Amino acid sequence: MYPTKNDIPEANRAKLVELLNARLADSIDLQTQCKQAHWNVKGPDFIALHELFDKVNEAVEEYVDEIAERAVQLGGTAEGTARTIAKRSTLSEYSAKSAAGRDHADALSTALASFGKGIRQSIEKSSELGDADTADLFTEVSRGVDKWLWFVEAHLQAER
Fold first, then answer.
1. Cα(44)–Cα(34) distance, rounded to whole angstroms?
2. Nearest alpha-carbon partner for 64 in 137, 158, 149
């Protein structure tokens, strides 16, 4: 940990940085899954899904940056290399095996839901560690992820 005049106790800050790096791994993994869907989707809904997946990616890219920067603000190091992400991410491997829009919407919605669950757990943990600002950051991310999950799942729900 780097020295800082932040008044959160160092032991708590260390746990918060660990938590932030865990969510950083998930968010970078989610971002790559968004791009996987964006690049490979095909079918009658191609342009709508292609553009949607890119918009989700742009939002997730902002989450990545905010989460990483918060870890550094607390005196930690943001750990976001590809090798680190591959080891730490709790998200499942991207599951779409075809180019069909429905398959990509299903795979990406699964990743978004899993990421959202981890973010919500992190809100509670941040609060327990006495860091309302990190809890607020995770709350903001949670709201955004729920919105994107809604947008992506809408492509699945019309066919039920």
1. 19
2. 137
C-alpha–C-alpha distance, residues 99 and 96, integer Å: 8
Q: How far, in Å, are 20, 63, 71, 79, 154 from residue 126 at the CA level?
A: 9, 16, 12, 19, 31
Q: Which residue has the tokens 């699945």?
A: 156
Domain 10-157: give its CATH code: 1.20.1260.10
pTM over 0.85: yes
Domain ranges for the chain, please list them. 10-157
Residue that is written with structure tokens 């973010």 in the block = 119
Q: How do residues 39-96 score in pLDDT, each as one tens digit?
A: 999 999 999 999 999 999 999 999 999 999 999 999 999 999 999 999 999 999 998 8
> Could you tell me which of 76, 112, 120 has the C-alpha nearest to residue 95?
112
Count the alpha carbons within 13 Å of 22 in the hemisphere toward its beta carbon: 18
Which of the 8 DSSP states describes residue 137?
H
Q: What is the pLDDT of residue 160?
A: 52
